[in-house]
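Holo prediction — 2-acetamido-2-deoxy-beta-D-glucopyranose.
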Amino acid sequence: MQKLTFLSLACAALAQVTNAQIAPNSYSYAESDWTNDITTAQSIGIDGFALNIAANDYEVDRIVDAYAAAESLGFKLLYSFDMTYTWQQSDMVNIVANHSSSPSTFLWKDTILVSTYSGESYGEDFWASFKSTLQSQGIDITLAPAFTTYRDPSDATSLVSTFPSIDGFFNWWSWPADVDANLTTATDLAYQAAVSSLSGPYIMSVSPWQFKNLDGAGDWVEYSDTLWNYRWQQAVNDVKPDIVYLGTQAPLYVDGFVHAAWRDVAQYYISWFKTGSAPTITKDEPSIAVPGSLPRNAAYPEDAVFALAMLKDTATITLAIGSNTVNFTAGAGVTMGSVPFPQRIHKSPISQSAGTGTTVVDTHGSMYVNQNGCTYYNFNPFVGSVSE
Ligand SMILES: *[C@@H]1O[C@H](CO)[C@@H](O)[C@H](O)[C@H]1NC(C)=O
Ligand SMILES: *[C@@H]1O[C@H](CO)[C@@H](O)[C@H](O)[C@H]1NC(C)=O
Ligand SMILES: *[C@@H]1O[C@H](CO)[C@@H](O)[C@H](O)[C@H]1NC(C)=O
């Protein structure tokens, strides 16, 4: 079975509410913007975009542009309807039907894969009739929704009995649930098993970081210090889902914070996911990430600089910030380490990777870490990288 990776891309500003960071939305997108995003995504092995659609409004025109760009680049698109908005079933049917014969419409076993954000409150009858209406037009779909209230592993069997019309499942949850602990694969494994006898895919989401600051509509951070590395490890080693869904647009960009280094990590794991074995690293590349009224769970992220080393050979990584220095040994492959902030600092972090007694690469972070007198708390991490 082919392994695929999709990146979530908002088709509407409000659809992005469900994602980690306020990322650019497609309201003002032209076809050339789609072309840029697709080209960037393809360069790291992403197969398609999941278009999060909140309403049958301007989004319909953006979809036309997205399809035009995708078709010329051989890229795939799938719809993820944001069901926290009010949808007329006929509008959803028209949207799916409109591009159903496009070569860029992503097919799962010769049927159109359709996903959602939420939608369980619409009830089984709504979903059954959505599918049968499309079928009466000669369009077969595979429905793999992200019914977000299904997170507890013990609810997995009732998901399938309550919604006989679903064909697969998309587990939205790719960060810990308001706890100071790492996410486990318990939810993934339970829901993967629950849909394993159905025809559709198990879609697992992987995200680098979860921080939301929406002035009243939500302001929280979830414990994500090492999430980008261990969640990928869970995907490639433990869960091995049919499709990896990269939540948030973070691997491409977030509001002024450059997350390009995360893209390199994604590229490495996407290759591993698809081929089943860890790719050979050809250059040494440690990257560093620093997290910036306090959001909910503000105490969970460590006050530390993290380094994710992607190395071709064993090396010692030195991380320093202010008066603190930590050395750790990293083997070939991906290893994470961290150095805590000193008590009072106003310094930019240094990361360096040393081979056999000689410094291979070193760098300074371009952002200063300031622990004194913050008036605005930003838990968006700064991500930098250095490579040989
Ligand atoms: C269907 O696609 C055409 C262009 O091919 C577009 O003009 C129209 O708005 C679309 N309608 C819907 C419902 O998606
Ligand atoms: C999460 O896992 C990392 C290793 O990936 C470990 O260093 C860290 O202590 C764990 N965090 C918690 C809160 O258990
Ligand atoms: C880390 O390694 C560097 C380079 O070898 C060395 O100068 C420094 O003393 C070491 N620091 C610690 C805390 O081990």
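READOUT: The pocket of 2-acetamido-2-deoxy-beta-D-glucopyranose (ligand 1) is lined by residues 60, 64, 94-95, 98 (CB under 6 Å).
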